Protein: aldehyde dehydrogenase (NAD(+))
Organism: Aegilops tauschii subsp. strangulata
Amino acid sequence: MTKIVASVFEKNNLPSAIFTAFCGGAEIGQAIALDTRIPLVSFTGSTKVGQMVQQQVSARFGKCLLELSGNNAIIVMDDADIPLAVRSVLFAAVGTAGQRCTTCRRLLLHESIYQTFLDQLVEVYKQVRIGDPMEKGTLLGPLHTTASKESFLKGIQNIRSQGGKILLGGSAIESEGNFVQPTIVEISPAAPVVREELFGPVLYAMKFQTLKEAIEINNSVPQGLSSSIFTRKPDAIFKWIGPHGSDCGIVNVNIPTNGAEIGGAFGGEKATGGGREAGSDSWKQYMRRATCTINYGSELPLAQGINFG
């Protein structure tokens, strides 16, 4: 991609280095954060590292655009289209092996449909084909690194120690590559592990009684990127998207937490960082705003009608 973009710049007599890719460790990110020649740093990564970047950039009075962790929930109401919701949860939780900031990590089910929904979801999970993502029909590829695989296994240990019940999966797959099983967990929304982003195909299932309770659970985590509700009721929809609904930057209805945000203002609130990429206002983040007043006359106009003599 860098070479393609560089060729476009060169054809237009512009320096190809305008668009540059650096591969390396934390030292590259730190150098960018500390460099006073870079007025704006757009950072995508974990909340922990994003906080460090923001502190370093702010210390030199630079600006930050942060796209950080997500801990996204899908709420399924008792009147929802169950087959549609099941397919959506599968895509949102298993796609890209759970390695998207908009991956669904929490599934909130109305108590009246809780078991029915879980039974159907477990059945479709069992049909997930794991393997080379370049091969047609593969739904779940590997985790990115060995460290990601170890983080998954450590997360499963924490889940078990905090009372979580593994309904499906929960293990690494003994094979070449960093493959793990897609995992569904029953757990209390009050468990500390639920407040953290486990970057892998792990889905926390929990039940609720009222929409108010579901919204409170959705908003109870530090992160605030994406969220979704499945319902046919207009009053529930408008409560969800209103000021007393989801506190996330992306608030969906009858679609997953991921996959439909292209063209919209992408980003989240709270520990997700508050930045926005794409969408109608994103260009403003990359601009320097200046207020300019030009006097074309020979008089000196002053504000508030002041007469300075």
The mean pLDDT is 94.
